[in-house]
Amino acid sequence: MVEFLVENLPLALLGAGLVLMVLEAVSPGAHLIVVGVALVGAGLIGVLFPPIAGPLVMAALTLLFGAAATWIYREFDFYGGKGTAQTSDSDSLSGRTGYVTERVTNRSGEVKLEEGGFSPHYSARTADEPIPEGEEVIVLDPGGGNVLTVAPLGGLGDDEIDRALAREAASRESERGTDRATETEKSG
Known about the structure:
Elements: H1 2-7, H2 9-26, H3 32-48, H4 55-76, E1 97-102, E2 110-113, E3 121-125, E4 136-141, E5 147-152, H5 160-187
Helix pairs in contact: 2-3, 3-4
C-alpha cells in the first residue's frame, strides 16, 4: 500500500490539492486554497517530470509552491482589499447599511451588509414592524455582532415626532386652503 502511494505520489498530491481547492470554492474563507495550490503545483510538476518525482523533491516543491501561494494570497488579499472590508469589532457595525436577504421579524431574519466584513451575512431582528426581503436597512444596535437590530432605511426619519409634525403641517395647509376658499367666495 505504501509503495503504491509513493509510486503515485504526484497523482495523489494533484488529487488532494484539487479536492481542497473545490472545498475552498464551495466554502470560501477556510484558507484551503493555499494548501490546495501547493499540492496541485507539486503534483503537476511530478506528473510532468516523473524522474524527479521522489518524496523529498515532492515535499520541497510543496513547500515552495505553498510559500508562493501564501505570498500571493496575502499580497493581493482576494477577500477584502488589505483587510479594509473586515470589521474590527461589533461596534463598527452600528450605522452600516445593507438589505434584507430573509424577512426580518422580532424573532428571525437575515441581512447582508455593505462592507460587512469577510462574511457580510448577519442574523437580524427588528424592534418594530417586520421588514420584507429586499428592503434597505440600517443597523441600529450591533448586539455583540451575533444578532443585529435593524430598521428600514426609508422609514428611519418617520418616527412619532415626524408623524405629529406632518399631521400639524397638513392641518395648517388645509386651514389655509379653507381660508383661501372663504376669501374667494367673499370677493367673488
